[in-house]
Design a protein that fits this description.
Blueprint (H helix, E strand, L loop, with lengths): L2 E6 L10 E4 L4 E5 L4 E6 L2 E12 L2 E6 L4 E7 L2 E4 L3 H8 L1 H5 L3 H22 L3 H29 L4 H6 L3
Antiparallel strand pairs: 1-2, 1-8, 2-3, 3-4, 4-5, 5-6, 6-7, 7-8
Length: 167
């Protein structure tokens, strides 16, 4: 979990509604007073946008692609789950793009199914279950664009339905 610190105070009076950055200046998270947030990643503005909810020291995020993340305020710091799987998939994008979209979807859904099956046997074992969840999220994150690409190529009239997979 990366740790973020407030970059500057805001006029809202809430120390939690601010711009949060990590020590590498990579993500800039900006929760606003209206319950929305905007995130800049690696200098790319508006990389993620969505809603957030604060309950005590916990913050939950729902981004514009439908992915959930959470964080915890600890003193003056925000410890946020970045779901490393969602970071790894874009890094592998060039390699994955070399494969045909239907093949990418099958190759991604296979490990997703295996991790669901493995998860059913892991029960109370937290670390292996967390690793299975990480692999599942990575597999679905790799499969979703391939499914949309396949739908767009084979059924262009269903383009709206393909895009709705992300919403």
């Amino acid at each position: 979990m990366p740790t973020l610190w407030p970059a500057a105070p805001t006029l809202t009076g809430s120390p939690r509604v601010s711009v949060w950055i990590d020590r590498h200046d990579f993500p800039h998270q900006e929760p606003t007073a209206d319950g929305r947030y905007d995130e800049t990643r690696g200098g790319r503005p508006h990389a993620y946008q969505g809603r957030y909810w604060i309950d005590g020291d916990r913050i939950d995020y729902l981004d514009h692609l439908g992915f959930w993340a959470y964080g915890e305020f600890q003193g003056d710091a925000l410890r946020a789950s970045a779901l490393p799987a969602l970071v790894a998939v874009p890094v592998l994008a060039r390699l994955l793009q070399r494969l045909a979209a239907p093949l990418r979807a099958v190759l991604a859904f296979a490990p997703a199914a295996l991790t669901v099956a493995a998860g059913s046997f892991l029960g109370g074992h937290t670390v292996p279950l967390a690793l299975a969840l990480l692999l599942f999220v990575a597999a679905v994150a790799a499969a979703a664009p391939a499914v949309v690409e396949t739908i767009n190529a084979t059924a262009p009239h269903a383009r709206g339905a393909a895009v709705a997979l992300y919403l």
